[in-house]
Structures
1.
Amino acid sequence: MCRNGALFVDLRVTRWFGNEEQLPKGRLAVFSYAAAALTILLLAGFWKLQVLETGHFTDLAERNRIRTVPIMAPRGRMLDREGRVLVDNYPSFSILLLREDSHLLENTLPQVAAGLDLPVDDLREQITAAAAEPKFQPIVIKPEATQADIAFVESHRADLPVLELLMVHRRRYPSGGFLSHAIGYVSEVNQQQLAESNGRYRPGDITGRSGLEREYNDVLMGADGSRRVMVDSMGKVASTLEDTEAVPGQSIQLTIDYDLQAIAESDLGDKQGAIVALDPQTGEVLAMASHPAPDPNDFAVRISSAQWKSLTDDPEHPLLNRAIQAQLAPGSVFKIIVATAMLESGTPAEDFTVSCPGYADFYGRTFHCWQKGGHGSVDLHKAIVQSCDVFFYNVGKRLGIDRIYQYATELGLGRRTGIDLPGEQPGFIPSPAWKERVYHQQWYPGETISVSVGQGAVVTTPLQMAYSIGGIAMGGTFVQPHLLKDFPSVHTQRVPLREETIQRVTDGMFGVVNEGGTAATSRLPNIELCGKTGSAQVIGYDTRDRLGKAAEFKENAWFVGYAPRRNPEIAVAVIIQGGGHGGTVAPVAADIVKAYYEKKQHRQQNQTAVNFLSRTEPATMVATMEPR
Amino acid sequence: MPERPKFGDFDWWLMGIVGAICTLGLLQIYSATHNGNLAGMQWKQLIWIGVGITGMLVFMRLDYHAMLEQAPLLYIIGIAALLAVLAMGHTRFGSRRWVVIGGVFLQVSEVMKLIIIIVLARFFSEVRTEELTLQDLVKAGILVAIPALLILVEPDLGTALALLPVAGVGIYLAGMRRKHTLTVVALLLVLSPVAWHLRTHLKPYQQQRIETFLHPEESPRGSGYQILQSEIAVGSGGLWGKGFGKGSQNQLGFVPVRYSDFILAALAEEFGFAGVLVALLLYLGLVWRLVESAQKAKDRAGMFLVMGVAAILGFHVLVNAAMVIGYMPVTGIPLPLMSYGGSSTAFVFLALGLVMNVRMTRFVN
């Protein structure tokens, strides 16, 4: 009997008396039954998970271990006509945020923000913005990760499994906006494109947004591949299950000549304007510049909405590709169209002559000639060479608006040339029918007088002018301009022009440069540079004088030149907004034509050298071919 | 003094069941660790099983009455050891539970389980009334509460709770007054909703504090993640399992401590419901065999010893299996004889040594 206190005091008990009486067996049996009952309950729990809900958990297990990592296809490059690289790619890493585990995401967000040097509020905003998208779709929180960012993600794979790196190829564009309008740029596919693509695009895909990037997106884009990998609980890749190789986009070769483009870019400088150079025989565009030009590298990664707004709101419209989208009055360049119409229709007769006192009165209104002192007696040739307005007022009056409309349209104006760029504008040639339809007004004969010198409602794009003037010099053959070297099925439009017409019009344009005409300063030795200047009023002379703001409304200076005199190899349209007299911009076209001929000569010399060397000493050929 | 028990009286049925459970455990430890830097862990476990069996054979040959006689001394030594652990024990996984003896990490709380079985067996066997008095209940409660609280502050909630069923089963077997029974039932009915309310209505930071207390070793993913991964492993195993060594949740490390506390989840994934059925039936068989030994015990003290062992093992299996399927919170309770762990394996074998001892003693005299 050592219960109670004795139990804990006397540690040296040698004899101890327990209760020898057996307990009722039933109490022990209850324990067995309870154990059996609990086992059945547990088994029911396992049955629920393993048999009833096994599909659900199998899905979860698969999602745990399988991760699909995209392999981005590099976009095709753009090369110039000689194979020089214009647009290239460079590898870069984007940091993805996996959003499947929202609890984990919330817990680790501050650490992620601190490690990647991103404001945590911005991250929250991005997560909220993407809330509607499927949870398994990661979001890019940092394009263009730095070395430090990559190191951060790599070293926190275990404790920050919400981060993932994605290797991407980014576009490297020529710097300073070189050829930027024609090239265009790429951006992440937007909701509208996604909806229209019928599943061809996936969120996050990079597609061409403008220019050639957009026009040839399907060729350039390629197809992204993917890698299905098995990952362990730390997010480390345990093994690769299957690879779908990325199909790289195809490179495209352009008709652009880097050297000519460079001259065009530097001649335009910081002036507002555009230059288009093309080969009228093939339609190949050799150069296309438009200023001001944004540098697409600035928004190749991700453009902020503020940045984008400043571009779209800029009064100088840097996003406008003036070469194909600026619709401006052609001014005196249009006289070539009127001259061609006159010769073709015989109205008035080709020996038509007027006396220019510096102005002329029509329908009770006085129309000025740009030469206030007048040109004296003027025939067609002199009228083109000296750009006499009075002569063409009279021609226009006799031709009438319907004929001008008909010939201008036939000669390539007032409609798109069909160049392989998105967003080309058609320009506009007015007609009585149009005026009736749009304004419900009658056509005033005085309007015809303005139209005949390329003013009034006539507007054209620089590309159209090069296309049209080049086509006339080709004898009425208008070849669809294009930028892709292997452009399939180039469309050619033939307008039957009389030989006499072509002869006289091209002689006139030869005179403009070579016979002391309006572009006499741009004469080139040994090169038959021809062309026509134009000085298009932005507003009427009268309005300008009334406002007294001559400087603000300076004329747009045009020059459309080509060489040689017949069947030209190169046609160049130059417009500088507010550039004043057309004669001042003719040297720009002359520069490009001169460079074109120098390159051609150089090529021929090399060809001769190669022919000569290949007969004698092939080994030195390479050295000789090095550009000087 | 009774005579030494004969070897032929050894409980081969019990040992067969124990052997099967250990084999399943070794296989799953191998499957869970052979790919990583823990490879070879099954051999360590095998050594511990060897140590345990040796201890069991020794315990078999001691007279359990001699142990019961020394119960007060054992109790004092146990409490002192727990205090010593708290003062200068070794901390691992955020909890101070270990003492290092000759380079071996030993969990003192495992030893305390054994001691509490012996102490309570002696206490209840000395009750001569048909039913326990209130005084007896309070005394039994205090005997358990002291070590349980010391273990709780280590912190080790699981092991602290594991001491309670020993007292619970003892009280039930010793007999309770109707009045006391009704009071306990009423208390449970009142407290359960309160506990439930606390669990669901605590502020997040309060829950967080309790979480950190319960799971000091937690990863930032939280215990919810562990339970989910365990459920995924179990559920994806299906009826027949994915095959030995082929469970992705197990092999790729999604199941937390898959060689120890969550070994049943790994087994469920690789052997399916069929494997779980076998494992749980083995444990049920183990408990039945223990109850049978208790029924055949020569005296009341022997019976209480065996039932104490049955209670503690049954509790472990119940809580562990329920945790694996998300029915109970993660409290760090291993699956006896299957989970990797030196101290707990050794404890089970020593406890089974006590059971054998009681069983064999009945044949002598």
2.
Amino acid sequence: MATRQTQSLARLMRAPAILLLLAWMIVPLAMTLYYSFLDYNLLNPGSAAWTGFFNYRFFYTDPAFFAAIGNTLILVLGVLAITVIGGIAIALLIDRPIMGQGIVRILIISPFFVMPPVAALIWKNMIMHPSYGVLADMARFFGVQPVDWFAQYPLLSIIIIVAWQWLPFATLILLTALQSLDSEQMEAAEMDGASAWAKFTHLILPHMARAITVVILIQTIFLLGVYAEILVTTNGGPGNASTNLTYLIYRAARLNFDIGGAAAGGIIAVVLANIVAIFLMRAVGKNLD
Amino acid sequence: MNMKLRSLMGACALTALAAPVMAETLTIATVNNGDMIRMQKMTKPFTDANPDIQLEWVTLEENVLRERVTTDIATNGGQYDVLTIGNYEVPIWAKQQWLTPLTDLPADYDADDLLPPVRAALSMDDQLFAVPFYAESAMVMYRKDLAEAAGVTIPDSPTWTDIKTAAEKMTDKSKEQYGICLRGKPGWGENMAFLSAMANSYGARWFDMDWKPQFDSAEWKEAFTDYLTMMQEYGPPGASSNGFNENLSLFQQGKCGIWIDATVAASFVSDPNESTVADKVGFAKFPNKEGVDNHGNWLWSWNLAIPASSQKQDAAKKFVAWATSKAYTEQVAAADGWRAAPPGTRTSLYENAEYQKDAPFAAMTLEAITVANTQKSSVQDVPYTGGQFVAIPEFQGIGTSVGQQFAAALAGQMSADDALAAAQSNVTREMTRARYIK
Amino acid sequence: MARATTQRSRIGWTIAAWFVALLIFFPILYTIITSLKTEQEAIAGFDLIPSFTLSSFEAVQSQNSYWRPFTNSVILSLGSTLLALVVAIPAAWAMAFSPTKRTKDILMWMLSTKMMPAVAVLVPIYLIFLRTGLMDTRIGLTVLLMLINLPIVVWMLYTYFREIPGEILEAARMDGASLRNEILYVLTPMAVPGIASTLLLNVILAWNEAFWTIQLTTTNAAPLSAFIASFSSPQGLFWAKLSAASVMAIAPILVLGWFSQKQLVRGLTFGAVK
């Protein structure tokens, strides 16, 4: 009796959030699906006609399409690698009793508070600019030709910028996991004369598995949608070297004003993102229980 | 009778009183360049004369502005009462009947004073659909001191061979002194604006009369190869991310021998407060290839237009007329000197002796604008209008994607031939999709 | 001997940690420094000591008023987060204390709603906003930002609530506490820290949102993201002005983040700690 009451109360409490998100998912998705079958250009609004799967065909036969998928994967995996490995290293570093721990922590989490377009502007103009950037100044100081980051290493530059933004997030989650590690276990391991590396691989890493999973999961969702950094810095170029899937859709929607094409691209992106999500859940989901 | 009259008078008095209270707010979308920002600070005479109109500014970076206003006007959103748009948008939007024709401008507006090419670009069926705030063509800016030291002279109307020779002689990479700076940053309004004009001056065109792209033509190949050679041998490092703004900084820092770009740059490079080379700049006409009678036909203007969806047509009309009037020019001149006056739109400005004295680049700018032919930008026949762009809605997309290929070639990631071939196939694809190519 | 080694290694680690921290913070630091330079200094090459001029800030402020977008940013980020909490707390509560077989699936599904690229649905949403009169209103954007961040809010709260031991509830029930008292006196105090950190994180996420806040506003509801969009590449020299505008856009949230750093560290656990 009591449980049934609780159950229905629970349902009632869940309902608003679920219904809202359901609406927020279904309405745009349905409209996008509808537009994806139309030949609808915003600049020629009179001529919206049904075209079947033409938009889909047009989108995936784009010469940039496969490059964009490859770049999306490289971008996501690259940023994940840097933030997870860097995050573990930094977490281990600032978990130690160091002087000014509070300030160090504040400095390290700061990039998380910077808006993505501002972060991209800062890196583009202050740090990586081939004439006025700090890196160019340093190169000249050492008598080396400054690197033109966005022309020579466009995707790497974007990975660096995005990783900079997400490193604090990973560091914080991994740090909290680290701090919850049982100190008795660590001491026991130390008594047994375990090496630092053995302690790391047998004790610390398994303990952090769940936190690492969370980092990967949350970041992947955000990283699949990265485009502001690309727009501000390289515009997807040179060529298609830094065009990812989201940017390709952006190009269709905001440069060509091709609403049908962008909608088809959006549907393709959702399908691909869900494949990635299922794959991810299979691979790391068990760590979440 | 008496009563009636009195009440009538009362009513009149009431309306007279009520009018200023019903203040209208105009929402004005502008681009964040220097002239527009100056205008925002100078609106006092307008608001004094029109106390019932309040101005609300939305200042955005060019690309964001274009996205925002295009979405709004195409969905009939009515969020803005005055738009700042380029002469690229005006004919396209006018054709969709998205813009209010500016027919009954005040008598002292003197539309006949507008420079004919500028006016033509903003008109359809002899009706103005936008009024120009400032306009520009393109020309050569070069360092007289460096040219002299290198022993070269740049004629008033140079050929590309003259430019190449001069650029080579003026280059001294050990001193971070580069012979030539040109746009390389991908974008239809960045590297493709320059490259389209340069291609025009080589006798090339974007499309033939059947809308077939022409990147496989000998003219395009020659223009593009020359561009790459100049930039890779005499240009600054990182040229594939340099747009107008980056090149402006480089030139102001004294790092460029020659810079070929928009005429508005002239007032920035010769401004002693901003430029380290202000007194050493020479100007010349946009180059052409020997034997091709074409100097690029670059014409760009930032204009004010009123969307048909605006609810405040009358107030908006008053504002656009004021902001592009002779009086506004005089007001700017009085406050910041004649050199700061918005250039390129009115004959009267170029006839003004004070302006001529204050702006050494005036004559060259005027000439560049008056010869710009946007109705036929190539020596070959073309099915489109526009000089350094093609005035079709699809151009933003295709221009940018071609710009990407060309920037990749400039960055050394692909050959000139591959870039041209990729451009040709991309544009063919898009033009087929848009049903230009049957 | 051992003590000396510990002391020495402590200094070593301190130096290493500070080095890494300064390296990560450097881009922000350099932006702050550049904002205090003149435009000429800003491009004159690497220099950590500015002339401490405020002229760039003045120039930025005179071009675009700062206070209205600032107020809008505060209202939008706080409003959307509070709204999200109102909806999410009951949901997360129910999921944590009366989980069903599908609870985890529902949570994953909620997160997956974030995978639709915003730019692909812009035109549909734009049209909805126009037709309903929500365009350029704070209410419209508040609701939208709430929807965008709702999945994260629910998930964070869920992992938090799940850590509250069930035995406490049962003990309270044994003592005859009503459901209302149970929530009010037993659970709320335990949940407050979790709710607080969720609030903080989402204020930050909402503050930093820079797509919808630009596309769906003109003047009345435009926050600091739109403010920044007017400084990204004007003509002429703009490094110092861009830095000043950037500092103005990120300073409030940076200060908030710094002051609430401890709370935030807890909030970011996402139940990662067991």
